[in-house]
Design a protein that fits this description.
Elements lengths: L2 E6 L15 H4 L3 E3 L4 E5 L6 H12 L25 E5 L6 E5 L3 H10 L16 H12 L5 E5 L7 H14 L4 E5 L12 E4 L6 E2 L6 H11 L1 H8 L4 H5 L1
Parallel strand pairs: 3-7, 3-8, 5-6, 6-7
Antiparallel strand pairs: 1-2, 1-4, 8-9
Amino acid sequence: MFLKSATILKEKIPNSKDHPFSLPLIKNNDVIKFSANITFFVGENGSGKSTLLEAIAYQCGFNTAGGGRNNNHYVEASEAALGDYVRLSWLPKVTNGFFMRSESFYQFATHVDEVDAHDWYGGKSLHSQSHGESFFSLFKNRFGKKGIYLLDEPEAALSPARQLSFLSILKELSGCSQFIIATHSPILLGYPGAHIISFDHSPLSLIKYEDTDHYQITRRFLENRNKILKQLFGISEDERDR
C-alpha cells in the first residue's frame, strides 16, 4: 500500500456554495486515511465519491479525463474541481498507475487509437471490442505493474459474471498494487478484506459490507421481489389479493 491519506486543505478552499465546495464531504472531513490495499467508496449519487477520486487522480498526475501520466487527451467537464485543495501522503510515493473514468472511457479508447498504443491494451483497438471486453483488456493489460489504480464505477459495462471475474483480477494484483474504487456494485463490495468508506456518513467512516445500502437493498429485493414491486408501484391490498 502506497497512498496513506488525503488531506482536504480547507484553509485554501474558496467560500463558495457551488458544487463541489458545498458538499458535506468537504465541510465535515479533514483527513481521509487509507489502510488497505483495496478501498471502496460507496454512497448515494452526488455524495462526492467521484469528486474525491478525481482530486486524488489529479494529485497523482494522472489525466483526469481518464488515463495515466502520459495520456493527454481532453474531455469536457473532466476537470478535478477539488484537485488543488487536496494533499496526498505517501509511503513510498509511486508514479505508476491509472485513473479509469467509466463515463469517458469511449474518449479514452479513441485517444489510444490516435496515438497507436494498442500494445498496452492487448494488441487491438479497444473500439473493436465490446464495451465489457474493452474494460477487461484495460484491466488485464494495463494494470500489471506496481502502482495505484483509481477506478470510477468499473462495473458500468460488466455483467454480474464479469464482475466476479474482475474480483479475481483484483486478487492477482492487490499484492503489489493499491486500488481505490468508487462503486455501486454489491458484488464488487464483497471483496474479502477490503475497506469500505461510506460517503453517506458525515464525517466519512468505515462501514461493514453487510451494513451498506447496496447489500441491504439488493438482498431485500431478491428475497421479497413481489412485495417490494407492489409497494413501489402503489398496488393496494385489494389489488394484491386479486
